[in-house]
């Protein structure tokens, strides 16, 4: 199979779909890889490193999209990339379609087969291709929050860990999943007063067992979210409903009642965000202010640390890339129900129910497409 790796073009996105290490594994399986020139510069890998791993270098994205059978990316295809997709071509990347009607429409019209990293599952539950970037984003959320709490950056001038005799900042984390767990780890390490809110008591129990008494855990109710957000210096939202739009847990009215100069880091922004006042931002302009509350809503947070993120992502995606290439996408999805869960769009049909429901499309089950 001919696999294509275009250079990412989203604002300040420095990750790349495949590393030279991954490409060496793919070519060892007898496949060809076409990499757009400069695709790996953001992780410190030039064209020579890709050629040494067995890849062929393409002069531009148009060549990659016109020749490749399987496109492996990181972020959702941008409008100009979506125009280059061809019927029958397979796209394997993050998509986050539920809050993105325009992208969904373009992918449906392309006739391509689109498999989303974020809805691939694993035995026993969990999202193995979302998890590594959630880990990165959770850790980054505390760094970003601490930075913007500084007075020079618009915050109300609170040091996350405080000092002897002065209270630390109160950090409220909504959602105790992968993002929340890693955010708590960093926030506790910095000495903050950390509170995790979740509606799953088993999740809260697990966090308590991992971190002990320094971590405060709260069962999620409207009262709990309101009371703790009002008192918070930094709010991290990492709530996820796989493949669906994030629930709006932080209302616009609640934002008005939060401390002036406090910060919301909405890690759920890829799926539409958890705050009613959230809207997507970029690394070029990461924040904006609503009712004196700083909002950080960057849709590709892990792109800020592309070396760490790319290698962490490749560790998770490589086995699936090999399965798609070795067996062909259809057979790979037939044999693996967890990879099959990643199929969001195929040949003009929406094959993920949450996406179909979000945008009013008829839902077609992946099993019907595959005759499973």
Furnish the topology, listing elements before pairings:
Layout: E1 2-5, H1 20-28, E2 32-36, H2 47-52, E3 56-58, H3 61-67, E4 70-72, H4 79-82, E5 90-93, H5 101-110, E6 113-116, H6 131-149, E7 170-174, H7 178-189, E8 193-198, H8 201-211, E9 215-219, H9 222-231, E10 234-237, H10 252-257, E11 263-266, E12 287-290, E13 293-296, H11 306-327, H12 329-335, H13 337-340, E14 343-346, E15 349-350, H14 353-359, H15 366-370
Parallel strand pairs: 1-2, 1-4, 2-3, 4-5, 5-6, 7-8, 7-10, 8-9, 10-11, 11-13
Antiparallel strand pairs: 6-14, 12-13, 14-15
Helix pairs in contact: 6-7, 11-12
Kindly give the count of domains: 2
CATH superfamily of the largest domain: NAD(P)-binding Rossmann-like Domain
Structural class of the helices, strands and pairings?
Answer: alpha/beta
Number of helices: 15
Strand order of the largest sheet: 3-2-1-4-5-6-14-15
Sheet with most strands: 8 strands, mixed
First-residue to last-residue Cα separation: 23 Å
Poorly predicted ranges: none
Proportion of residues in helical segments? 25-40%
Listing every helix as H and every strand as E from the N terminus to the C terminus, the arrangement reads EHEHEHEHEHEHEHEHEHEHEEEHHHEEHH
Descriptive overview:
It is a single chain. The protein is of the alpha/beta class and about 375 residues long. It folds into 2 domains: about 1-120 and about 305-370, NAD(P)-binding Rossmann-like Domain (Rossmann fold, 3-Layer(aba) Sandwich); about 130-300, Rossmann fold. It is built from 15 helices and 15 strands. Strands 3-2-1-4-5-6-14-15 form an 8-stranded mixed sheet, sandwiched between helices. The protein has a 7-stranded mixed sheet with strand order 9-8-7-10-11-13-12, with helices on both faces. Helix 6 crosses helix 7 (about 180-190). The longest helix has 22 residues, at about 305-325. The radius of gyration is 21 Å and the shape is globular. The model has no long low-confidence stretch (mean pLDDT about 95).
């Amino acid at each position: 199979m001919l696999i294509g790796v275009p250079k990412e073009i989203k604002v300040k996105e420095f990750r790349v779909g495949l590393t030279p290490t991954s490409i060496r594994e793919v070519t060892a399986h007898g496949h060809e890889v076409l990499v757009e020139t400069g695709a790996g510069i953001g992780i410190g890998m030039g064209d020579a490193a890709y050629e040494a791993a067995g890849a062929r270098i393409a002069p531009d994205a148009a060549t990659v999209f016109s020749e490749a059978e399987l496109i492996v990316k990181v972020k959702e295809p941008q409008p100009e990339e979506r125009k280059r997709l061809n019927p029958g071509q397979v796209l394997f990347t993050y998509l986050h379609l539920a809050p993105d009607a325009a992208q969904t429409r373009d992918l449906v019209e392309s006739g391509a087969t689109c498999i989303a990293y974020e809805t691939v599952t694993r035995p026993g539950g969990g999202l193995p291709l979302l998890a590594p970037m959630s880990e990165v984003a959770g850790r980054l959320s505390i760094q970003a929050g601490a930075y913007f709490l500084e007075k020079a950056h618009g915050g109300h001038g609170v040091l996350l860990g405080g000092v002897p005799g002065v209270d630390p900042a109160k950090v409220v984390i909504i959602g105790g999943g992968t993002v929340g767990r890693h955010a708590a780890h960093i926030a506790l390490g910095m000495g903050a007063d950390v509170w995790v809110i979740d509606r799953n008591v088993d999740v809260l129990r697990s966090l308590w067992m991992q971190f002990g008494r320094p971590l405060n855990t709260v069962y999620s109710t409207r009262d709990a979210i309101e009371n703790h957000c009002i008192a918070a210096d930094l709010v991290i939202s990492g709530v996820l409903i796989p493949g669906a739009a994030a629930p709006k847990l932080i209302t616009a009215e609640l934002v008005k009642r939060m401390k002036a100069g406090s910060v919301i880091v909405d890690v759920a922004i890829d799926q539409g965000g958890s705050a009613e006042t959230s809207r997507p931002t970029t690394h070029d302009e990461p924040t904006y202010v609503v009712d004196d509350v700083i909002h950080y809503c960057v849709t590709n947070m892990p792109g800020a640390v592309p070396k760490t993120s790319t290698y962490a992502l490749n560790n998770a995606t490589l086995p699936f890339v090999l399965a798609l290439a070795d067996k062909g996408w259809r057979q790979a999805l037939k044999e693996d129900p967890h990879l099959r869960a990643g199929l969001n769009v195929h040949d003009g049909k929406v094959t993920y129910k949450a996406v179909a429901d979000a945008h009013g499309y008829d839902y077609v089950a992946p099993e019907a497409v595959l005759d499973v």
